[in-house]
Amino acid sequence: MTMTGGCACGAVRYRLASAPFDTGWCHCRVCQRVSGAPAMAFSTVPVADFVIEQGGDTIGTVALTDFGRRTFCARCGSPLTIAVDHQPETIDFPVATLDDPDPVAPGYHIFTASRIAWFDTADDFPRHERFRPDTRGL
Fold first, then answer.
1. Could you tell me the pTM of the whole model?
2. How many CA atoms lie within 13 A of 13 on its CB side?
């Protein structure tokens, strides 16, 4: 199953060469601020399987934490990827940037210590104050 996605303005398009895995909600302040939402649903693929098909020259990179960096469309500001230093073989991406995000459902919450008080999802997924205890590379 090939999945595709991109930024809000259409300048950047990507294709996933494998099925996403390890999908969750992140409540960290950085995800809140870059998404403009109380939390960001993200998923993971091997680095080589996140294939930029269009607009590679419009992608910006920023390091907003001490453990990774993010990419975004420099034209519209849409977040595109999150690369964390302790998992160099994989890359995370916001699920909402997929053309069809419905099949990629979150299964846990991270960084709940910074959850916005009025936002809570009606699920009973595992919740972790920071990273999950079994996070690869930690």
1. 0.90
2. 6
